Amino acid sequence: MSMVLDLNKIKDEIRNFNLERDWDRFHNVKDLIIALTSEVGELAECYRWLTEEEISTIHSVPEKKKKVEEEIADILIYLLIISYKVDINVLEAIEQKLEKNKLRYPVDKSKSLHSNPIMGFKGK
Description:
The chain is mostly helical. The chain folds into 2 domains: about 5-90, Helix Hairpins (Orthogonal Bundle); about 90-124, no CATH class. The protein is about 65% helix and about 5% strand. It has 6 helices and 2 strands, in the order H-H-H-H-H-H-E-E. The protein has a two-stranded antiparallel sheet. A hairpin with a 3-residue loop joins strand 1 and strand 2. Helix 1 (about 5-20) crosses helix 4 and helix 2 (about 30-45) runs antiparallel to helix 4 (about 60-85).
């Protein structure tokens, strides 16, 4: 049985977890961003120097996939802590950013294309 959890409820659970341990006082935005960057690095380490075939193997072996899941969870936890520290509603921010991206990248001009700051647009 799967349960879809409300993001705000999860954010409250994280906040309570930190308050119960008196950790919230250490969580300033700068240090949270540094911690977030470290966690993104740990996720990147899971994939560094691997071929596409080796990456497929990671995703098909439960113990290895679990490590990836934990790093993704750590990243989201830090993002949610930052969001409550700076009073941002993550779901509203995502909705607004998706709308902005729809205007910036209309389907008729963006389909099958991606960009690189050095190489420009690629695809099609």
